[in-house]
Amino acid sequence: MVQVIDDWFTNRRLGLVFEAQINGCSILVCGSDITTNLAGRHAARQFRCALLDYMAGGSFCPQFQIAPDALGRALGHQNTCVIHRDR
């Protein structure tokens, strides 16, 4: 959904935000910190608001299925925000 390029030389696409279905729930995973000190971090606050608005709208309908253990392995112990909405 949102990709960043790590640097000019390796040019790897890294997933910053992705969405998926897991156990009947639609989830959105964001690798950026969009939860702490939002009063002083206007861009993070706006990004979080945009993601939540997207999830509340009709366009949020993840097609990709992921198993809970695969999600756990992918995230490891990273500081990652997972937002879900039951369908």
Chart the SSEs and their pairings.
Blueprint: E1 2-5, E2 13-22, E3 25-30, H1 42-56, H2 68-75, E4 81-86
Antiparallel strand pairs: 1-2, 2-3, 3-4
Can you describe this structure?
The structure is a single chain. With 87 residues, the protein is of the alpha+beta class. It has one domain (2-86). It contains two helices and four strands. It has a four-stranded antiparallel β-sheet with strand order 1-2-3-4, with no helix packed on it. Strand 1 (2-5) and strand 2 (13-22) form a beta hairpin. The protein starts with a strand and ends with a strand. The model has no long low-confidence stretch (mean pLDDT 84).
For the structure shown, list the relevant keywords:
four-stranded antiparallel beta sheet; 2 helices; 87 residues; single chain; 4 strands; alpha+beta
